[in-house]
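Tokens as discussed.
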């Protein structure tokens, strides 16, 4: 009978000891997690069954080619009793680790129990399996003695079901005027819900929103005419995308002139001429300088020769004013002209077809409205 009593007592002692002793454990609340690419996820660092925890430090290994660490935030475990704490973290991409540390302030006891020590916010950059591994860990009690523990690492898996896939059109935005507003069309050509963020590091580019969900139109404008290329970055759970942005001043010109009308239209914008176009010997006469400068040409006057020199790219046109010379010289070669250039109301006038076609333009006559349309393309 006594042997049975001793045996029962022995079993009870073992059971009581096992019940009271529970190992301190560090974990990420789960062994693995499925993550959609570029989706912001938060994982906690949890401690279980600790006694008198005063401070801690972790080195957590990660793969920066697969994970982007956005931030690390302190948990509430060490300040459960409203005591102030000191918390810091550093993401060391070269050493491929996150360093996290915290301690309670003052000569006080530590905290016992279970709770959150920190929160790691990250994004999965690619659809690759990766991890967060406890590399170096130190747990200290209020006497600055080491606390023994075990730990479990985290496996991060790309989510393979209902994955969105981003499509962006166009892949380049070319502005030709400062008042333009261009559109970016963002579409989901995969499954699930597409969401993400859009941003630019170029302060001369303006976008109307910084985040999106679902199919979206982004409106883009520019603040300055620059001579270099910028970019708009789109990060989403369906992939990343870069859209190039640049300013190219358009040299396309559509000039509309009307006989007897002093107002000309250049790309639909009105311009006041020094006098209206007129007809002489069945030729429409126009101010030379207006047509040439709208083309982007340089007009030079040589008074001693009464000569005008027009320069546009590799085109050099020489003509003589008020000398009754019915010829001009184009890149060193003489060509005849229907009406010699002459001065009218203080301006040099020439036949519109001559000056336009010599500057690689196209001329169309509209007899019903007595209008001339000149088209200058970019070349």
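Sequence:
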């Amino acid at each position: 009978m006594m042997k049975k009593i001793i045996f029962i007592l022995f079993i009870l002692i073992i059971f009581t000891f096992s019940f009271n002793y529970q190992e301190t454990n560090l974990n990420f609340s789960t062994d693995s997690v499925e993550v959609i690419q570029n989706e912001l996820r938060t994982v906690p660092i949890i401690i279980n069954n600790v006694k008198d925890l005063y401070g801690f430090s972790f080195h957590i290994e990660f793969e920066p080619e697969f994970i982007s660490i956005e931030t690390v935030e302190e948990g509430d475990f060490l300040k459960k009793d409203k005591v102030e704490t000191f918390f810091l973290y550093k993401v060391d991409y070269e050493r491929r680790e996150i360093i996290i540390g915290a301690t309670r302030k003052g000569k006080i006891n530590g905290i016992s129990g279970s709770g959150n020590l920190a929160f790691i916010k990250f994004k999965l950059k690619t659809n690759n399996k990766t991890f967060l591994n406890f590399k170096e860990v130190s747990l200290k009690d209020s006497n600055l003695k080491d606390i023994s523990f075990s730990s479990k690492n985290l496996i991060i898996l790309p989510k393979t079901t209902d994955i969105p896939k981003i499509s962006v059109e166009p892949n380049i935005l070319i502005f030709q005027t400062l008042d333009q507003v261009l559109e970016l069309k963002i579409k989901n050509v995969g499954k699930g819900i597409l969401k993400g963020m859009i941003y630019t590091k170029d302060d001369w580019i303006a976008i109307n929103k910084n985040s999106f969900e679902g199919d979206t139109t982004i409106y883009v404008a520019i603040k300055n005419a620059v001579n270099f290329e910028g970019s708009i970055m789109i990060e989403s759970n369906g992939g990343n995308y870069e859209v190039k942005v640049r300013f190219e001043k358009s040299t396309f010109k559509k000039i509309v002139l009307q006989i007897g009308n002093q107002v000309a239209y250049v790309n639909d914008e009105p311009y006041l001429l020094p006098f209206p176009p007129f007809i002489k010997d069945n030729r429409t006469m126009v101010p030379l300088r207006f047509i040439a400068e709208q083309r982007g040409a340089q007009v030079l006057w040589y008074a001693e020769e009464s000569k005008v020199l027009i320069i546009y790219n590799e085109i050099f046109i020489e003509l003589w004013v008020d000398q009754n010379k019915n010829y001009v010289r184009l890149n060193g070669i003489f060509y005849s002209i229907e009406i010699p250039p002459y001065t009218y109301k203080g301006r040099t006038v020439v036949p519109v077809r001559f000056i336009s076609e010599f500057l690689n333009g196209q001329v169309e006559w509209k007899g019903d409205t007595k209008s001339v349309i000149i088209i200058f393309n970019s070349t």
